Automatic annotation (TrEMBL), chain A:
Coiled coil: none annotated. It comes from the Bacteria. Residues 1-228 form the FAD-binding PCMH-type domain. It is an enzyme of class 1 (oxidoreductase). This is Xanthine dehydrogenase YagS FAD-binding subunit. It comes from Granulicella aggregans. Transmembrane segments: none annotated.
TrEMBL record, chain B:
Residues 31-144 form the Aldehyde oxidase/xanthine dehydrogenase a/b hammerhead domain. One of its GO terms (molecular function) is xanthine dehydrogenase activity. It is an enzyme of class 1 (oxidoreductase). Its EC number is 1.17.1.4. Keywords: Molybdenum, Oxidoreductase. This is Xanthine dehydrogenase YagR molybdenum-binding subunit. Signal peptide: none annotated. Transmembrane segments: none annotated. InterPro entries: Ald_Oxase/Xan_DH_a/b, Ald_Oxase/Xan_DH_a/b_sf, Ald_Oxase/xanthine_DH-like, AldOxase/xan_DH_MoCoBD1, AldOxase/xan_DH_MoCoBD2, AldOxase/xan_DH_Mopterin-bd_sf.
Amino acid sequence: MELFKFTKATGIPQAVQMAAMSKTAQQGADVRFIAGGTTLLDLMKLNVEVPTQLVDINGLALDKVERLPDGRLRIGALVRNSDLAHSAEVQKDYAVLSQALLSGASAQLRNMATTGGNLLQRTRCMYFRNDALPCNKREPGTGCPAIEGDNRTLAIFGTSSDCIATNPSDMNIALVALEATVQVQGPKGEREVPIGEFHLLPGKTPHRENVLEPGDLVTSVTLPAAKAGAKQTYLKLRDRASYEFALASTAIVVELHGGKISYVRVALGGVGTKPWRSHEAEHALMGKAADAKNFRAAAEAALHGAKPQSENGFKVELAKRCIVHALTVATQQA
Amino acid sequence: MSTFSTTALPLNTPPKTMGKLPRVDGPLKVTGAAMYSSDYNLPGMLYAVPVCATVPSGKITALDASVAEKMPGVKAVYSHGNIGNLYRAAPPSGFIGILDEQRPPLEDEVVRYYGQYVAVVVAQTFEQATAAADKVKVTYSKTDHNVSDKLKTDEKPKVDFHRGDPDAAFASAAVKIDETYATPTETHNPIELHASVASWDGQGFTVYETTQAVMNHRNVMSQMLGVPEENIRVISRFLGSGFGGKLWPWPHTFLAASASRNLGRPVKLVVARSTMFESVGHRPRTQQRFRLGANADGKLVALIHDSLNHTSILDDYSEGCSEATPYSYSTPNLRATSAIVRRNVGTPTSMRGPGAVPGLFAMESAMDELAIRLKMDPIKLRLMNEPEKDEGLNLPFSSRHFVECLNTGAEKFGWAKRTPGVGSMKKDGLTIGWGVAGCSWIAERTEAQAAVDLMQTGMVRVSTATQDIGTGTYTALSQMASTKLGIPHDRIEVVLGDTRLPAGPISGGSWATASLVPAVMEAIEKAKGTLFAVAGSAKGTQFDGAKPDALAFTDGRVHLKDKSPDTGVPFEEILNKANIRVASGQGSSKGTFGDPNKKFSTHSFGAQFAEVTWQPETARLRVSRVVTVIDGGHIINPKPAQNQIEGAVVMGVGMAIFEETHYDPKFGLPLNNNLADYMVTTNADSPAIDVTFLDYPDKVLNELGARGVGEIGLAGIAAAITNAVYHATGVRVRELPVRIEDLLGPKMDVA
Ligand SMILES: Cc1cc2nc3c(=O)[nH]c(=O)nc-3n(C[C@H](O)[C@H](O)[C@H](O)COP(=O)(O)OP(=O)(O)OC[C@H]3O[C@@H](n4cnc5c(N)ncnc54)[C@H](O)[C@@H]3O)c2cc1C
Ligand code: SF4
């Protein structure tokens, strides 16, 4: 851990201004916002993050879940994961999000973790988290030892020859299935980014994980108005029953009309370098009957382009079962 | 209620434990008042943080501490050459003088495992020492390393046990099993980190240490630091468990002590969780070829068990996988061999049930495979091969009720309802699997001494330099004295974990309780003798002039043997009248361990029954239910005993389906060196556990017939689970842990 300055932000403009001094908002940032700290402090202790300035945003008024006049739901960036999961609005209209949040981490961590922090949590790749080892994401150009090493928990979608790390968040998978948007306040003003465009593929620049630039503060995440009658579910498969990241997970939002699937969103966790939306599965399901054969076909289509590594080939079959079972559970709901 | 102060205890006042059941130390622990080693803060104390090697094999070519030395608060940086004299310990005698990593830290500039200490920074605060340790620049010339988990050796294995002609018998056996089973490197991971708080006073040391053996620790420190034993005091009041990892000293203790001596100030060194995967021992990887030959009716004719385990480059640690092999089942022809294979890893050590636990995974898996091959119920196969005596030692068992363990367990578990077909049993929409395995563990006594003081205050003090590692030793001793003297627990004070007390046993091998019984009983008798002598010469009492052997002690009262207790007086009254503060007695137990003239084979036995649930649609495997029946001698206090077995079962679930320390082949480090990546059982993974003790006193061991139950609960459980996994899924996992990928098998058919 290195010495750092700690400043409590008094307002959004000041927070943005301080962070704008950073040379990057990605790996290597010298100014970091701190929210719950459950990702950031760990990484600082491991010397993976070495900011010289922390800007504590916990005092900012970004901790509300609000219904907007048009029916959308705006979630402040500082809403704690546990509060969000238990919010009545979310439980009623966005069950997939509540389930995803509650399947993650532990009660203590969820009480600290925030919406913004969860959106931006870093990979659990063990090479990334050990500063004695090479890693392109942590130190660009040093190589990716995971490709020939321990990649059991890493990605099968969106990988590159430079990085195969998984985005580990459960919440993000639900946000993808719900087609959320992210509101960002930056030095040049406010902007809105669809969740699908928020995270980046590693490509040649795995140290760049999202679209944020110096000074950018995530202020909220907004969910579209609830679809009446949509069925939702989140299924997470993992080694142990709690306190464990997904090996494969699936978030489903689905509507049926006359026994046929009229709307469906399928997002996959634990398998992608970014929260993974499976357009292939959705395409295979649209207009089809909700039955096991079609679910399996959708799962096959979803995993068609998977690129397994030396240790994680099992994820292909596991993700298929996850999709089939999640679809089964979702469509059988009353 | 216990009368503990919540502040740091002054050095010379050992904490008191008032006997109050259940678990006399419970209130202290739940209120946070119990002082663990790293809780001690001494005046002027400094903090030491080690620098660990970042190569698994090589030589230090340069070590630059110039930046670190100038950092705020830094008092010293020690590396090879300036730490001061550290010697090697001579070979041990009995349970004194033992350590697994023989090389003193910083002895040379050669690195033999990743994480080996190459320097230590001492500073005013922990943060300063940590920051400076990061800035010590070490350059290495790397040499080839090997951390491979594929174990092979060209060396001739050691023959541990041999009888009959196993090769010929196996060759001609009607039914054969010949499989190799493997258990991974496991890291103990007690919640309490290893720690040393060492204070040099110019002549010797006082050390608060996370140790399961204060007497051994003092001896090894004396040898390695070159200070007479009487000048060293080692204290271990409470231990946040050890599981064997804290039995013998590890290098950090010598760094802390040396730094304290060099600087003339107390030094605290707390070993980081990640470092606990490197330099405080681990259960080594084992690979075991197990051959069973049987008649067509299931009678064993041959058993051959060849095991390998990895060890470090410098130390010869043998896991001893064949511990339970020679005596578990009856067979005329048997051989067990073992060999070690060197790897660039830290030195392994005992972990809960060393040897027997991995060994029984192999044996009880092989027995299950044999039963399936024979189309026989696995319990029946075991009953058929029940020995009449220990065929390895050719001695009768002191007390063996393995058959009853199996039968009682079967009854409790509902085994009769089991259908043998793979995947044939369902419950609540899930496939269930049922498995059984036997277990056993060594029951022995080690040498031990204890003192009992009958005090003028009416209190009784029991003291011995053993430790309570969370197993309930405070409670068991309180109970022994209470029962024997007829004095309530709240008048009994137990003092442990201090080398100034009479030499007590190691907290290892599950032997502490059994070892202490004779010592405490003798000490009680002697203390009573002292009291009777006082009574007989105490002027003005009704016993004035009475011969000691005319007196008796009942429920805290002294009376004439031929009169009833209520005619007597409380013992404290006699001491008060005589103005004598304490009537003391010392007692000792002889060890049985390694006794060449044994007349009995002494072991504990048990049966483990496990149920797993399996949901193929989601590849979800859970251990849902465990029934354990233990033949562990007389159980002094069923509460902590049950707690030991339940804890062991939870650990066994970890062994079966979660735990593995993974060394990265390229970089040579244990990669998953933290509690997020090294999976242990969580509450949500813990099954319903039903524990039964048969409670047959083993009077060969001591007058109470008590053995010890710290380890046996972990034996057999992994095999019971993998046997259940086979029953549910048809997949035989011979290499632990069972992983989701082992079970995905052929593609799911959903059409
Ligand atoms: C042991 C463990 C197990 C876990 N298991 C799971 C799991 O199973 N599933 C799961 O999904 N997650 C899991 N997590 C991760 C957890 O969900 C995240 O750590 C948490 O959500 C991060 O939120 P935070 O508020 O604490 O973030 P912080 O640590 O405060 O911040 C994380 C990052 O986001 C940035 N940041 C925070 N807020 C903003 C903002 N408003 N605008 C711009 N940047 C911001 C920070 O600068 C930092 O870089 C686990 C974590 C741990 C430690
Ligand atoms: S997968 Fe990505 S994070 Fe992991 S080692 Fe490779 S580059 Fe680093």
